[in-house]
Amino acid sequence: MSEPPICPLCAAGPCGHYHRDTRRDYLQCPRCALIFVPAAFHLAPQAERAVYDQHQNSPADAGYRRFLSRLYTPLIAELVPGACGLDFGSGPGPTLSVMFEEAGHPMAIYDPYYAPDTTVLTGQYDFITATEVVEHLAAPGRELARLVGLLRPGGWLGLMTKRPTGHAAFGDWHYILDPTHIGYYSEATLSWFASTHGLSVRFPASDVALLHKGR
What we know:
215 residues; alpha/beta; Rossmann fold; 6-stranded mixed sheet; 4-stranded antiparallel sheet; 26% helix
């Protein structure tokens, strides 16, 4: 008999059925409310990268910059001059890091496929961004805790990910059609994570969360 599924964010379980479509199952955690796809339905790394390789993001794309501004604008308002950051999951065309650097904020970048220098994950940062990243994480509890550990006291973790709006709308939600999207974070889920790690959190947009590490 297989072990009952546990939550990849908070390790609670067993997690129950939330939704099923023709491709895969979705479970929900009883403690942190994360909705997630079981590991049996995750893409292999090669197939996952093939999806990412189709992305056409670039700092020269004004539309992409406007999209990223949903996180950039509220976050930069919180930063002191010269604050140093890390863009975690920078993707094949790093752009948010360029936007912050243009404003005088040096940034390191990390991406397991496109910028895999893990030495940047041993530093300390005033702010960390992860735009359209957390929904791809197979082990979000471990990865997000690591990012919190890289923040200096008073630092900011800026997340951009679309949030589910309820069970009735979930089956028709375009966000679940991407086969690389395997985790869905409601305000309740992100609030649980913030409280558990001693952070405060606010939601300046429907797909943005700013988590603050106290001094």
